[in-house]
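Task 17 of the worksheet. Students: predict the tertiary structure of the chain below and write it out as structure tokens. Keep your answer in the requested format; marks are given for formatting as well as content.
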Amino acid sequence: MGDRAVDQAGATAPAATARLLAADVGGTYARVGLVDPQGNGFAVGFHRRYQCAAFPSLAAVLRHFRDEAAEAGEAAFPDACVVAIAGVLQGDHLLNGNLAWPVSLSGTRRDAGIRHLHLINDFEALAWALPRIPQAQFQPLGAAGGLPLPALLLGPGTGLGAALLVDQGGRLAVQPSEAGQAALAAGTPLELDVVRLLQARFGHVASERVFSGPGLVHLYEALCALRDLPPRWHTPAALVEAAGRGDDPLAVECIALFCGWLGSFAGDLALTFRAGSVCLAGGLTGHLQRHLPRGDFMRRFLDKGVLSDSLRQLPVHALEHGDLGLIGAAAWHDAQPQG
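Model answer:
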């Protein structure tokens, strides 16, 4: 196979080539690092995590990282940069409602002083990373197995991302999506009540209005309104912590409702794309890893009528990997035609 390696998905992935400046930028945090080829994969070297709101622009984040890397003795700075960022690039501008600042591709290249700078969707990058992650880092939620393609990647964080990793004639490819902006579908009377309240508040109720960090708070606030109780918690972290302690029944109910509803949504997407496997990633997934296996996630995932048995065979995993976006950005870069 020459310089190509067979990955765990069965398709082929290009061997890594050169050092890259990579960034993974979400609505809350930006992770930036220097990524080097290592065998058939990548190694993340010097890296930092920044709060996006502490900087006036994406270019300012990249410049600050470059200064910190120089102070740390990283003299060999790459001339290529890939930024995995939440949103959709339309022409020169990124469309996203969750970022701390507007993003222009040409403006970022100019202001950061990086000529070979690329912007790709953050979940497109995460999907590119999947075959590069050791199997031991996948936490099984459903059937055991590897990463049969197509592999559906779904992730609640500041927003809700989704992408599909596919095999195109022996070569890996990624189909990004905006599934998080699709209308939220209710499957129980309680969920219908929640949707009704959210619709009165927001108008269009996108799926990420619930399946995200801010969405978890929206869900809790809707439950409080339905139970005629004042909200006690105002952040996703506080809600998850209260549910973990078990001393707040409404917080426990909210997390259980979230996990079950997310399972139903994941099952819908798995059927839509005829996925061979499903992976959950994203910042909120890490916080919920103790709740997902014991909750209603898999029950609702499988509750699809005559096709329930087909979903029962799908490997379903949760994945927490802080460098996933950086590795995915490097994998995307190496998959592009050279020259």
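Marker's comment: Residues 1-16 have pLDDT under 50 and may be disordered. The longest strand covers residues 41-51.
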